[in-house]
Amino acid sequence: MVAESLKAGPLAERIKQEVKSEVEGMVRAQGARPCLAAVRVGDDPASAVYVGNKIKACEEVGIRSEHHALPETSTTAELLDLISTLNSREDVDGILTQLPLPNGIEERAIIEAIDPAKDVDGFHPVNVGNLALGRSAFVPCTPAGIIELLVHNDVEIRGARACVVGRSQIVGRPMAQLLLQRDATVTICHSRTRDLASVTREADLLIVAIGRTGMIGGEHIKPGATVIDVGMNKVTDPDQVRELFGQAAGKRLEVLSKRGYTLVGDVHPAAAAEVAGRLTPVPGGVGLLTVAMLMKNTLLAARLRRKSKS
Ligand code: NAP
Fold first, then answer.
1. 98 is catalytic
2. Mind listing the pLDDT tens digit for each residue in 59-93?
3. Ligand 1 nearest-atom number relative to CA 167
4. At what angle do helices 249-259 and 238-245 cross, to 10 degrees?
5. Phi, then psi, of 10 in degrees rounded to 5
6. Which of 142, 147, 141, 149 is nearest to 5 (CA)?
7. Which ligand 1 atom is at minimum distance from the Cα of 209?
8. Torsion of CA 207, 209, 214, 219, to 10 degrees
9. 230 lines ligand 1 (CB under 6 A)
């Protein structure tokens, strides 16, 4: 069996187009554009790229954006001041703080300071709690995008055995909640799970978010299962690229020689393709949807805030 590749590019574009036309409608009706404020602290190059991609997506869909880049030496108090100002500004609909924050800044205090009505990342305890209660809430963008991808590809969730590997606040936990809301039978695995393969092999729907390059192999996958690979890991060793991609390694080795790295998920691409029914590629899979869903959440925040004020 060679798994079907669940590419997310066209769906991500469609979501952004839908947001764009709704934003234009809002501008025509109310004269105001939704606005996202992105806060970044320090010089982490990966964070700078992620925030840059989010700002670019805002431009594509017509959402106004602000980029607040603070120096590495910033204190928790300074960041809390900025969040407080953004909370009180009428013209700001969504606030995101790019994680991880530098050591020394109290991440939890920052997340909890964001007005839940502007928490477009869905990390505030009020939104986490509402999601756990099955109420409507801002849902973290990566798991929300995965649900869109499954629905778009007619992957049956109701009644399916779903296994989520990883229990982070950003991906694993909210993913499990969303699958439960849609009537899957959900198992959550983590680093202390005994005999991981025997658990994951039961799943019709396997979602992996662990940050371990290619760790999930053919032996972890039920034949024909749908496998969603959330991992994004940089690989710099050509031998590892050959081992991960087998005969398809050629293109990846070209990327590696141009950029110095290639992105690989948490699922072993060559081994999984032999067993799974459907598999998301990395890159070109889940990552594209995360930014599209952030746009959707920002539009939702603008709509809800304006409705509550009218
Ligand atoms: P995280 O906060 O580091 O959490 C990793 C989770 O994996 C933890 O729950 C950990 O278990 C579990 N884990 C680690 N090693 C394991 C093992 N050997 N067996 C079973 N479970 C194991 O990671 P994250 O933020 O969820 O991110 C996971 C991956 O997704 C990373 O590669 C990240 O770059 C990627 N990501 C991609 C996107 C996207 O848009 N595509 C978005 C977010 C994250 P414990 O809880 O027991 O420690």
1. yes
2. 999 999 999 999 999 999 999 999 999 999 999 99
3. 9
4. 150
5. -60, -40
6. 149
7. 28
8. -40
9. yes
